[in-house]
């Protein structure tokens, strides 16, 4: 990278870090949007801690997400998810990537709205499907027609994800580019709030 490009990259990180302040940045959106992988890069760019709520749930329960769904059902999983996310958002700044259903749950959404700045990683069905089809770890997609299930979740959930503070289009580009787009959205949001 040329020296000039390096300076631009540094200034993007610094400006985004300043825009976030002590708030948490919370990634929401459907399965496959890139919350877990892009969130990790964003946190490393901002040099602040990263936590994935699903990994934290698995750590505290010592069970996988699939095992939790199978043993206790979705309702119990949502109750545990709400408690874990509430706790994760108590201090900041952090980047917290949530599981796809977290922001849809009323209680969890309230914790997220109170706990920091939310970013919806929004993607179209084909991008999501290409990514989730590669792994079979997601219990909600263990259906006869998982692509149709994903489309149904998209229709039901997109109006709710739209309540997030910021929206970033999750395109078929490298994760690092997506992470830069999150940083840029953060800076833009700060500029707009300073201007109003
Ligand atoms: N921008 C991207 N380009 C290519 N692959 C991606 C991108 N974002 C995510 N992926 C891949 O898609 C899959 C799902 O990503 P993940 O971060 O787990 O999404 P989520 O947490 O939103 O379900 C992973 O295999 C990940 O490596
Ligand atoms: O959309 C959902 O309801 C879920 C999404 C998953 O997380 P990812 O969005 O990170 O795949 C995980 O929390 C669980 O399988 C339920
Ligand atoms: Mg994830």
UniProtKB/TrEMBL annotation:
In short, the EC number is: 2.7.1.71
Query: What span is annotated as the signal peptide, if there is one?
Result: none
Pfam families per UniProt? SKI
Give residues annotated as binding substrate.
54, 78, 100, 157
Where are the annotated coiled coils located? none
Keywords assigned by UniProt, alphabetized: Amino-acid biosynthesis, Aromatic amino acid biosynthesis, ATP-binding, Cytoplasm, Kinase, Magnesium, Metal-binding, Nucleotide-binding, Transferase
Q: What class of enzyme is it?
A: transferase
Binding annotation for ATP: 32-37, 138
Sequence positions that bind Mg(2+) = 36
Biological or metabolic pathway of the protein: Metabolic intermediate biosynthesis; chorismate biosynthesis; chorismate from D-erythrose 4-phosphate and phosphoenolpyruvate: step 5/7
Q: Which Gene3D superfamilies match?
A: P-loop containing nucleotide triphosphate hydrolases
Query: Which catalytic reaction applies to this protein?
Result: shikimate + ATP = 3-phosphoshikimate + ADP + H(+)
Keyword Magnesium applies = yes
Q: Which GO terms describe its molecular function?
A: shikimate kinase activity
Q: Carries keyword Magnesium?
A: yes
The cofactor(s) it depends on are:
Mg(2+)
Where does this polypeptide localize?
Answer: Cytoplasm
Q: Cofactor stoichiometry and binding?
A: Binds 1 Mg(2+) ion per subunit.
Mainly localized where?
Answer: cytoplasm
Family listed: Belongs to the shikimate kinase family.
Could you give the subunit structure recorded for this chain? Monomer.
Q: Name the job this protein performs.
A: Catalyzes the specific phosphorylation of the 3-hydroxyl group of shikimic acid using ATP as a cosubstrate.
State what protein this is by name: Shikimate kinase
The scientific name of the source species is Rhizobium indicum
Gene name of the encoded protein: aroK
